[in-house]
Amino acid sequence: MVPRASTAPVTAHTGRQQYVPQFTQSGRQQKQTPYRNRLTGRLVQQGLSVAGDVRECIEFGSATDKRYSLEIMKDDPARSTAHGFWRFAANYLLAARIIEVKIHSEGHLYLPALHLHGLAIELGLKAFLLKRGHSLANLREISHSLTKALNLARRHKLGRTVKLTRNELLAIRVLDITYSSNKLRYIVTGSIQLPNLIEISRASETLVADLELLCTGTRGRIAHAL
To answer: What residues pair up with 43 in beta bridges, in sequence order?
Structure first.
């Protein structure tokens, strides 16, 4: 059943110009003319259902038309560089540090901080692997596993560049249990194992700071920001 449109001026982004339902003085919705969806190029009747319009966009990008999805997912080594991966890692590290202030003062946002540190560690390790000759396709095979990325990086002599302590290495492996399985992003039942926040914060900072020179050619920016 199609829900009745509200009189409130709510807009919806549906792959075309914003659509706001129009009403006559009697309260009836005005008849809408068909529009052409700019993503799919197909004619769609306005005013029927926003969900139907969104569904058409999804179908266009799904297996029914793989041109669109392949164009989006195509690797671009010229853009996805070790420098870019490191820059994103540094941004997530800085975001985690901002949240940590809230944790120490009010005791909130523990899981979001861990997730941000996980992102910083994942992207930092992948930046290192790019510098060691691995392709973007190789990184995709690793997925979001911190343990796989760490083990592979250590086989490429990560320890010569990044000085992680035994406790920091352990913290990364413990974080991977929940991070790579998305348990930090979604509600799960039962108990979960989490690393010590201080140890994972040190591991994240050490990794990003020690990789700065290798990945960017400069040094000191992240240390100054922290």
So the answer is: 36
Give the separation between CA 102 and CA 111, rounded to whole angstroms.
Answer: 12
Cα dihedral: 21, 26, 28, 30 (round 10): -60
CA distance 180 to 182: 5
CA-nearest of 98, 39, 25, 103 to 68 is 39
Within the chain, residue ranges assigned H as helices are: 50-61, 66-73, 82-106, 110-131, 136-142, 146-155, 166-179, 197-216, 221-225
In this structure, are residues 126 and 88 in contact, taking their beta carbons and an 8 Å threshold?
no
- Give helix 146-155 / helix 110-131 axis angle, nearest 10°: 30
Q: What is the pLDDT of residues 65-104, one digit of tens each?
A: 444 444 445 678 878 999 999 999 999 999 999 999 888 7
Query: Is the torsion defined by CA of 207, 209, 214, 215 positive or negative?
Result: positive
Q: What is the pTM of this model?
A: 0.67
178-209 pLDDT per residue, tens: 999 999 988 888 888 999 999 999 999 999 99
